[in-house]
Amino acid sequence: MRTAISELDLRSASSLTEALAILRDEARTPIAGATDVYVALNFGTLKPKRFLDIWALDELRSISLSGDTLVIGSLTTYTSLIQSPIVGERLPMLVEASRLVGGVQIQNRGTIGGNVANASPAGDALPVLAAADAVIVVRSDAGERRVPITQFYTGYRATVMTPDELIVAVEIAPVEGKQWFRKVGTRAAQAISKVVVAGVRAPMPRIAFGSIAPTVVRVPETERALGDGATIDDAEGVLAREIAPIDDIRSTAEYRRRVSMNLLRRFWAETG
Amino acid sequence: MTLRFVLNGAKTELDAHPMARLLDVLREECALTGSKEGCGEGECGACTVLVNGEPVCSCIIPVAHVEGAAVLTIEGLGGDHPLQHHFMNEVGAQCGICTPGMIMAAMALGPAPTLEDVKTALAGNLCRCTGYAAIYRAVMKWRGLEAPPSMVAE
Lengths: 272, 154
Fold this sequence. Notes:
The structure holds 2 protein chains of 2 kinds.
Chain A: E1 9-12, H1 16-25, E2 29-31, H2 37-43, E3 50-53, E4 63-66, E5 69-73, H3 78-83, H4 85-90, H5 92-99, H6 104-107, H7 112-118, H8 126-131, E6 135-140, E7 143-148, E8 153-155, E9 158-159, E10 166-172, E11 178-184, E12 195-201, E13 206-210, E14 217-218, H9 220-227, H10 232-242, H11 253-271
Parallel strand pairs in A: 1-3, 2-3
Antiparallel strand pairs in A: 4-5, 5-10, 6-7, 6-10, 8-9, 11-12, 12-13, 13-14
Chain B: E1 2-7, E2 10-15, H1 22-29, E3 48-51, E4 54-57, E5 70-72, H2 82-89, H3 99-107, H4 115-121, H5 133-142
Parallel strand pairs in B: 1-5
Antiparallel strand pairs in B: 1-2, 3-4, 3-5
Helix pairs in contact in B: 2-5
């Protein structure tokens, strides 16, 4: 551990109303399952000093239907997503992604809201949410707004959220078409992805990649090509031109481009 | 903060910084050094303990999160637990660093797990000595299940 705990300050909220009032009055970084915050703490890269513990807010843990829309509370853990019949039925690709987030220990604490808020380009749930055209529901003391996930990220680890806002839910309208998810990392469990992809096979396919850009990305040109009836060979070429992955500690740009193309081909073959 | 929780079956009250890591409080305040620190990022599982019956990595949890909860560590099994004996008999422990975490993660398994269930339950625990077969065998035998032939010692 490379952070002096004595310099940190934690307040705990026991209701959403209280949490939003605290965030209105003071700048604090929310902590839910702590699986990202405490990794930074252990590695000495944690910048914030003041935190707000929201783990006790059970009101943010429900999974429900509002009309035809699936509403997942932001504190829903991966374990709860895996065990939820309604998520399994409506969004099986989210269940698949959840199974590949760390081990059971991480699945028991990591939350969908935390994955969205942490804004990592490698967040496992994010391509699923992007391919499903999910809407992120954020609330502050002043009110609530809904932001499509494709507009939620403004750059590397940057979002449209203001410091007084909290993610309260993720909304997903019915997804028509066959869902597909694949994560490529150094091993099956317990690895941050080199490339992660989710796809929906519909007349106009929806395909989202993680770990190949500063944020999770949809690939609209590739989607349009496939929707217009292009061959998978041609669509691969479109994808190769559309994405611009980089070299980093986990992989190289060239590897990521090749794997992305292969994953597109496999998505198309396995959902056809 | 004054923290109240149930530790290995005993009501416990102690003073701790709310953001102290659960692992540090267990090891340094409670003198329970069975839980180990491996990677410090939730990938190796050596620090696994049960909180309200669920395996968690105690190195990435603020101690505030166990207020009012039941925490079970390897010491809570008492040293004579059947699963501990199976780990010894099958040589599921070699260097021993991963063993407390492995055992605590396995404790959360249901009554009749398949080998796949065991592998999934232990996917968050890394072992660099055994090659895992002896560990899976120990857990399967503990549950009264036959280990597959490839995992039976010759």
